[in-house]
Amino acid sequence: MTANPIPRxxxxxxxxxxxxxxxxxxxxxxxxxxxxxxxxxxDELIGIFYVENRRRKQNIKIVVKLxxxxxxxxxxxxQNDHINEQLIRIDDIIGSSCGQRLKKRxxxxxxxxxxxxxxxxxxxxxxxxxxxxxxxxxxxxxxNSAYLYIYAYLKKEKPxxxxxxxxxxxxxxxxxxxxxxxxxxxxxxxIREHKQRSGAAGEVARATGKKLLILLNPKSGSGKGRExxxxxxxxxxxxxxxxxxxxxxxxxxxxxxxxxxxxxxMERYSGIVxxxxxxxxxxxxxxxxxxxxWRRACRELPLGIIPCGSGNGLAKSIAHHCNxxxxxxxxxxxxxxxxxxxxxxxxxVRVELTHRDxxxxxxxxxxxxxxxxxxxxxxxxSLRSIGAQRFTLWAIRRLIxxxxxxxxxxxxxxxxxxxxxxxxxxxxxxxxxxxxQSTTGTPQEQANSQAxxxxxxxxxxxxxxxxxxxxxxxxxxxxxxxxxxLSLDRSIYRQNADSWHxxxxxxxxxxxxxxxxxxxNRSRLNVSQRIEAANAEFNQLVPVSKIPGLQMPLSAxxxxxxxxxxxxxxxxxxxxxxxxxxxxxxxxxxxxxxIYLVIIRAGVGRSQLxxxxxxxxxxxxxxxxxxxxxxxxPVRAFRIExxxxxxILTIDGERVDYGPIQAEVFPxxxxxxxxxxx
Length: 678
Ligand SMILES: Nc1ncnc2c1ncn2[C@@H]1O[C@H](COP(=O)(O)OP(=O)(O)OP(=O)(O)O)[C@@H](O)[C@H]1O
Known about the structure:
Number of strands: 25
Largest sheet: 11 strands, antiparallel
Number of domains: 4
Shape: elongated
Oligomer: single chain
Bound molecules: adenosine-5'-triphosphate
């Protein structure tokens, strides 16, 4: 909200006076519109209303002007000696409703407003009709008034917060309720139109007849997701007149499957809101990326999050991004962000990992952790019942029994190496070796594991969209030929080889079983041409990796730096917050195309580490000067090759198989809901 009190100075009063005249003129026009049952809403509506000040036993005159910027409420005293004005910005108004008086007396600044003509009549007819008694007396008589309820959440900067304001306009120009209702409806419609013009996603969606899809995990956080939704989210959605479908998840992967397989997702929905923790958002992201039409889905469906989980890093990062409050009412504030629902591009990180000859590709939005923070996150699960304290307790424990992990770290700095700050002396990164790294399994085994269709993949074929017109044939000889071709010359297809591995994607199976596509018409080509054709076609269907596959060497010539040694942790973040109270990568932006790699090397002192952990809540943990042990590097991609088989790796806070892992950022791949838009 922007409140602009106009001080009591002569020249401003006269200026106000001059502004009032046209307002009166337009009031008449607005009423004339209604009386004439005009349907077209105007850009500007103006009415004069009165509020009873029961304490002072006087009426306060309020000129209410609805225009594209919002609603101006100009308040004047009877003597016209004091004027102040408030603007309720159109972006702060989430919705309105009109009709008869709500039974429960709603609390708001203007509790009851009367139009000018009736106010005068009223005073004439009931000279004493002031104060509560008179109002109640009137209430007992038939109330022909129509009421417009305007719901706004006004933003204050210091401290940053949003407070609910309800403004009620009472229309009773006519003795006929229908006429009064028509006036109220005109105001209601005009508010909607102004919101639509301001780009409010809900209004735009309404215009296209689409709904929000809300996925709720009843088990997230303290397990009260359903209750929180009914009490805190649903009322706001009602005020904003948001149409939605609520899907309550019944088991892990429910949301991922729902989003992946629902054919009319884009036709039916204008966006997807996750009412849960980061875990369910991860499912939704990977469900979208598992669709044949992922590109369109990512473009057309902005994603929102209402934090009902325990970590809630994304919800806090989004609030931080658009300068919206988070505490003390994270659910309310996040709901308001979703109601605004303006699409803002956000980076997604493609993660490739391998475990026991199997490759996986998944998509991440928050972080990848190896070492200290991942250990604290996962190992403290056993203390979940004590709440956020579990992290502190476990951090103390891990400081006492500090672990280091041996391994290799490769990264592709965002700036070229010549622009990089001086490398840390203790472990200066070296150029990546050109030599091939060891791979798991023989080439033939790898090829077989790549080509081997997973049982889940087969069942998923049923879900392929009809409109893709894909015909699949289970042709074993084609499968063998493909597997052979891949094992013979992987290097030719190096760039795209990883596309064949994605064990979790049905699209992999689609190609790897040698299925024919009526679109690609590959059947007339020889095997190697078909592989190339398949790769070309596949590239349209998945985001194309620009870095070598996980089993391929990384070259210094391509800008890769590497270091080998002992690490306390390597933690990569691409949003500002890892959890609502962990301001881990302050420099990060939703769409900066950067991964912030925080490296802590062995040899770091316990007190330095303690300061690091303590500083994470307000973002003061990273060294200002180059430090031999703690370093933050903005990168575009990185790879970790841990030695040994014991340790913890996390993606977006969830544990994954321990082994080599690499990540690459895809700038602005998805859209998230914010209040600011682009
Ligand atoms: N109905 C359900 N029953 C059990 N588990 C579920 C259900 N729906 C989703 N899940 C799983 O629960 C996991 C955790 O969910 P979520 O992230 O929403 O909550 P959280 O762990 O409390 O929050 P955070 O990730 O912020 O710590 C997800 O990985 C999801 O797959």
